[in-house]
TrEMBL record, chains A, B:
Keywords: DNA-binding, Transcription, Transcription regulation. GO terms for molecular function: DNA-binding transcription factor activity; transcription cis-regulatory region binding. It comes from the Bacteria. PANTHER family: HTH-TYPE TRANSCRIPTIONAL REGULATOR BETI, HTH-TYPE TRANSCRIPTIONAL REGULATOR RUTR. The lineage of its organism: Bacteria, Bacillati, Actinomycetota, Actinomycetes, Streptosporangiales. Gene3D superfamilies: Tetracycline Repressor, domain 2. InterPro entries: AlkX_C (IPR040611), Homeodomain-like_sf (IPR009057), HTH-type_TetR-like_transc_reg (IPR050109), HTH_TetR (IPR001647). Residues 2-62 form the HTH tetR-type domain. Residues 25-44 bind DNA. This is AcrR family transcriptional regulator. It comes from Nonomuraea endophytica.
Length: 179, 179
């Protein structure tokens, strides 16, 4: 991603956190980025493309944090438990996700469900790299689906308010799926 | 649920399948049911309540089908595999869900995610009855979350186009979680 695209996405992120997705136009983003409309439209021809690029950039950023937390751990079981805890904390504390899910869920839910295929793919391939088996991608996908589900539907019989609880859940309910 | 409520929900179901959720008002439902607005509003004071009742009735109806398919099977592992296959087929072939997810996802997604707690609870308690262990509810919840996720985000590395594939997925990726 080039510098201009990054600058557009930075401006879009800040603008959407403050005003929401519905009340943010491509013109607003151009103005906030200090760029012309033409420059913005050359990078992102539709608002939907811009949002997709924004989510993808956040995902890659998060995978960096995930790696820093999970990479050094000795066993795969430790990595799964910590990875689940870190991801849950990451999505729960995410400024943009929190703002949109609370304030205008109908604008963000399609991206996190029906249109989430590309993000699921990136996360799955990343996670599968840790698992190293012919079934890695399917197992990784199940882990991601369960985690995403707790973001989409927080109501649960499972206690998940602390990192310890998150790790205990993963140890009991995800680790047995390891290849 | 009384007969009048059932008649209202029947009318709402048919009307929404044909015209969608956004273009269905409480007046439309009253007219389709051959009832007065007052009668409809006495049962369901808001459109949201009516939709919730509609989804809950469909869920109970489906749990009956689920039971008929799964109940006679000899082992818990068989029940999980068949239960997953039957549920996937049930949600994929559901006229109302299909219509709304394809045509106006933003109207139905909040019900299937952020507001899905009450449905998740009913399904979880039903499923946990089969599992019979102190951890039954948590395990049931994971099964339901994974299944719901395939409805919400169909894009997958897992082949799930036939009942055989669905059963194979469940045998490999859900059964190991049994208590």
């Amino acid at each position: 991603m080039d510098e201009t695209a990054d600058r557009i996405l930075d401006a879009a992120f800040a603008r959407i956190v403050e005003h929401g997705l519905r009340r943010t136009t491509m013109d607003d983003v151009a103005r906030a980025a200090g760029l012309s409309r033409v420059t913005v439209y050359r990078r992102f021809s539709r608002k939907g493309d811009l949002i997709q690029a924004l989510i993808m950039r956040e995902l890659h950023r998060f995978l960096g944090e995930f790696e820093a937390a999970v990479g050094p751990l000795p066993t795969l079981a430790d990595q799964v438990a910590e990875g689940f805890a870190v991801t849950l904390k990451g999505v729960r504390g995410h400024a943009l996700l929190g703002r949109l899910l609370a304030g205008e869920p109908e604008t963000i839910l399609p991206h996190l469900t029906l249109e989430a295929g590309p993000y699921l793919k990136v996360a799955r391939e990343h996670l599968a790299g840790h698992l190293r088996s012919p079934e890695s991608e399917a197992v990784a996908e199940v882990f991601i689906r369960v985690t995403l589900s707790f973001l989409l539907t927080p109501d649960s019989v499972v206690p998940l308010s602390s990192d310890e609880e998150a790790r205990a859940f993963a140890a009991r309910h995800l680790v047995p799926l390891l290849p």
